[in-house]
Amino acid sequence: MSDYVPPYQITDKILTLVALISEKIGSISQRSNLDAKPHLRKNNKIKSIHSSLAIEANSLTLGEVKDVINGKTVLGAEKEIQEVKNAYAAYDEIANLDVYSLQELQRLHGIMTKYLTDVSGSFRLGEEGVFSDGKCIFMAPPAKLVPSLMEDLFAWMQRSQGIVHPLILAAVFHYEFVFIHPFTDGNGRMARLWHTAILAKWQPIFEFIPIESQIEKFQNGYYDAIAKCHTHGNSTVFIEFMLEQINTVLDEISIAVTAPGSNVSEYVSRLLSVMEYDTPYSSNELLSLLGLKSKEALRKNYLNPAIRDNLICMTEPDKPKSRNQRYIKK
Description:
- The protein has 330 residues and is mostly helical.
- Strand 1 (129-132) and strand 2 form a beta hairpin.
- It starts with 11 loop residues before the first helix and ends with a strand.
- It has 14 helices and 5 strands.
């Protein structure tokens, strides 16, 4: 068996972030019964899929991605719609994956790229590089080395179970996978999915955490960290970057899952019960759904308290009285 160990260093910053993240996960788990919030899992899965595909230039909006997943007709490029369907099917398997199996990864790649390439689930046979302004800024390892490099990576992961912290192991895998670039298509999507899957195997709470959305927000930083690792010859910078993003997104999740629930008024509870997640509603639509006639009563008893408690948000917060204003359940 290979004795390959990916090069990286454990810095004080990495140790601090691992401690912070572990503490936040414990706090969220204690205060929140996430198993009772299946809508949050699906909502964040949709966000993860939209963001991961957007990073790869899929132009569908979050609402369109949600419609595709819910079986609604969407006017868009057939390839982009298929990418959404494939990604949803792949993410749906996270809870049951053997994240230390190379064969499982190839099987999931087959799902992720179904109908999009003739070599789904198979390693590339040609050479791949990353180009910027017509210049090759990174050349992936030769295709003939890909099988052995992937076997070495998974052998290290298997040996590292219970030794290397999952937060670190997942980030190292992510970078090494991107570096090897084992497939002709879908490498970025698979790297991000497998990162999430490794963490979810450690703490199921990560099924509720849209890490990909945080990466999309800081996409330039994501690619910059990868480029620095190529230059330095180790994944230390990328580990730090990913831990920073996870630490940040946990703060957002903490607010979402511990937002007032038992203390909200009956009015707000009714409002939330008629709204779907990430769907924009006009005040007239909400009046109809609630069976109300007074917009003043809607604002005073329903909307304002829900906005104050961070349960819904306005699409145009700087123009609260805009005729185009819509309200979205978080």
